[in-house]
Amino acid sequence: MVFGIFKKKKKAVEDYLNDKNVLELTLNESKDCILDFTYNFIWQSNFDIKSEVFNGISYEKLVNHIKNPENVVYIKGDVGHRFCSSMGADLKYFGGSGGKIQTGTVIVDGNIDTRFGISMVSGTVYLNEKFSLKEPIGNIIEVESDISGYKKYISITELMESNSQEKVLKPNVFKNNELILNDNVIRDTIGARLENGSKITVNGNVDLSTGILMKNGTVLVNGNAGKNTGSVLRGGTVIINGNTGDFTASDMISGTIIIDGNAGKFLGSKKKNGVIYAKDGSAIPPLKKQSLNSKDKELLSKNGFFGEFVKF
Predict the structure, then answer these.
(1) Assessment of whether the complete model's pTM goes beyond 0.90
(2) What Cα–Cα distance (Å) separates residue 102 from each residue in 52, 106, 157?
(3) For residue 142, what pLDDT band results from cuts at 50, 70 and 90?
(4) DSSP class of residue 3?
(5) Where does the UniProt annotation place the signal sequence (predicted)?
(6) Pairing mode, if any, of strands 310-311 and 71-76?
(7) Are the C-beta atoms of 122 and 35 separated by less than 8 Å?
(8) What is the mean pLDDT of residues 128-146?
(9) Scanning 21, 35, 145, 235, which has the fewest C-beta atoms within 10 Å of its C-beta?
(10) Which residue, among 254, 252, 281, 251, has the nearest Cα to 265 in the 3D structure?
């Protein structure tokens, strides 16, 4: 038997681009926040969305172009930090619904700096295999590519919520609506805006804002987590089998956070609702440590936790 006879043939990038509406950039130097749907969190910065990226093409024009799922942005040159940040988020700040939209495709012939794809919820990014990306990355995962000579990345949230036929690469596993990340890649914002109740397990450490804006689902981390774990959590469960950095559960709206370790300082800043369980942590008043009741103990035991926890 000839193995691989039915393997899908990859396209050349030229063939892929042949019938597409392509906006092309040539970058002589790396620039941050390209295709960043928040424009570097414009509500707390002075970012000029009209400023030029290349040859009369502004940051705003790039974002508007990629909002059409049929469109392509082709970048030749290195890109900086926060590339494709929140791509696919229909942000209320700009008059959007607060939900998600489908977005187009990005092709990069260059290196990608840190925080690529933080809180990204849709779209596809192809990276030329001759180049590399720096960790931490965002809410993205590599899947089997259909373009020759390019690696393919998609949003973890989109993978979990769509009926995607994308093939997750080993050692990661995607089966029965659960994603298990075994690749030891450090990621921010895992599970951002997840709504469909699926489960993501990370065997290793994570960095910033795990579960940010999640509404329904479970993110389980068998390792330590960075700052802002469970930030703006709207529902679902975030479990950290380790310690977290500071500002855990900042602006938390609903849901459950369980930390089998120290939850850090400034815990629950501007927390509105929801519950936090941890072995220890320093909360921001009026949030304070509370003893567990029978319902708390039952919830923890259902998740496999026993012993000394406190509630915030």
Answers:
(1) yes
(2) 25, 13, 12
(3) very high
(4) T
(5) none
(6) unpaired
(7) no
(8) 98
(9) 21
(10) 281
